[in-house]
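User: Structure please.
Assistant: Input sequence and predicted structure:
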Amino acid sequence: MNAGKSTILLQSSYNYRERGMRTLVLCPDFDNRFGERKVASRIGLSADAIPFHTADNLFRLIQREHATNEIHCVLVDEAQFLNKPQVRQLGDVCDRLDIPVLTYGLRTDFQGNLFEGSQYLLAWADTLTEIKTICHCGRKATMVLRVDPSGRPIREGEQIQIGGNDRYVTVCRRHFYEGLTERLSNELPFDDFGS
């Protein structure tokens, strides 16, 4: 979060289109913070997108679009919300249709667990590039805390809950565990989390 993933996705799409090439931008159908069928960045850039559902076969969707009008690159926003079969289907797009696929998403959720899409992208991707952001302390932020309206970390809940800076804070590993410990200070001693 807050690393500029959507901005980089939109820039990549623009670079292809500037050279006369067609891109296909995909986004999860339930993330409509910026409107239906849109990918948007916090700095104000946006582009039309095709929403996908967890039941969609992305290989078939892309194959149909490609048959109608040649696609030169597929870009997927919020790729952590893909499921295992969809990650495999995107691999098939690269291998069978010879179309590059660029995916952008988070690695872990607010509890420090891998998302399903991230797990299989980490396992099967040809190339991984980390987009970095920083914690309030200046260290590299690798974790995300979900917070309540008062800014206190939330430890339990559904893995997927759409939100922005009002619900999530990017932090380094140290502040991630300290945030969870703050919430649990009456329940567990700090040593139970390790050092």
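The two ends are 25 Å apart (CA to CA).
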